[in-house]
Amino acid sequence: MAETAAPVKKIKLVVTRQDEPTSKPYTEEFEIPYRPGMNVISALMEIQRNPVNAKGDHTAPVCWESNCLEEVCGACSMVINGKPRQACAALVDKLEQPIRVEPMRTFPVVRDLVIDRSRMFNALKRVKAWIPIDGTYDLGPGPRMAEQKRQWAYELSKCMTCGVCLEACPNVNEKTDFIGPAAISQVRLFNAHPTGALNADERLEALMEDGGIEGCGNSQNCVRSCPKGIPLTTSIAEMNKQTTKHMFKRWLTV
Question: Least crowded by CB within 10 Å, which of 69, 122, 192, 196?
Fold first, then answer.
């Protein structure tokens, strides 16, 4: 008697799609063959290779962004089973099926899972999240940081501008101009740098403007959702203290 072949294990995905920025979102279901060690990105790549939905109809390949596939670049941020996270670190074996994949809604959707994170990048520009050295001449070796300060500053530098903390924050939405926890934490990072401290007052002034640190509602969703474990609430508390000191200092010097 001929042996019956074992059924091929399938993965079920429900993808929220959007054809263009102004069109309405809709869902489309897919079933793809399972392979050990798959993550959500490899599942989307399988759909791209063979864009046929669960009904057997040919469809347009799902659009998404990814780069490093090592949870470093932050490009593949999306909502997976209701939780904002990195798709490259979302292993299929650890996810409940059907796997529901959606774009982050804090940001405008460009198409399918591709979003426009300009809001986050503009917030970083607003707080001058960089060391202002023009590079036109050799400044020699920079000042050294104390080892203890360097260690906690390194933790803040792990931010990959993925936008997950903004997606998780209830105070970041289309009705507010709150800059979000990532930019606030970057102020702490660059103000701690010996050269960056030269522009510390400018960054604190930016946090004191409308949509700055006063927009934080202390929900603490950001620190729980951060894929890099950055102590965002600690940074927000520290910047709250520093902006308060700066405000009193400004009053006394008027």
Answer: 122
DSSP-derived secondary structure letter, 190: H
52, 57, 235 from 240: Cα distances, Å: 51, 54, 8
Give the C-alpha distances (Å, rounded to integers) separating 206 from 65, 245, 246.
31, 14, 12
Q: How far apart are the first and last CA of the chain?
A: 96
Domain limits for position 14: 10-115
Q: How many domains does the chain have?
A: 2
Torsion sign (Cα): 97, 12, 80, 227: positive
Q: What is the pTM of this model?
A: 0.90
Residue carrying the six token digits 């959702």: 225
The answer, yes or no, to whether residue 99 has pLDDT greater than 60, is: yes
1 is a domain residue = no
For 144-166, the three-class secondary structure string (H helix, E strand, C coil) is: CCCHHHHHHHHHHCCCCCCCHHH
16-36: pLDDT as tens digits: 999 999 999 999 999 999 999
What CA–CA distances, in Å, run from 175 to 29, 105, 115, 211? 32, 13, 18, 11
- If one counts every other C-beta atom within 10 angstroms of the C-beta of residue 173, the result is 11
Give per-residue pLDDT as tens, 215-226: 999 999 999 999
Distance CA 147, CA 199 (A): 22
pLDDT given for residue 134 in this prediction: 76
List, in order, residues 6 or more apart from 3 with CB less than 8 Å away. Answer: none
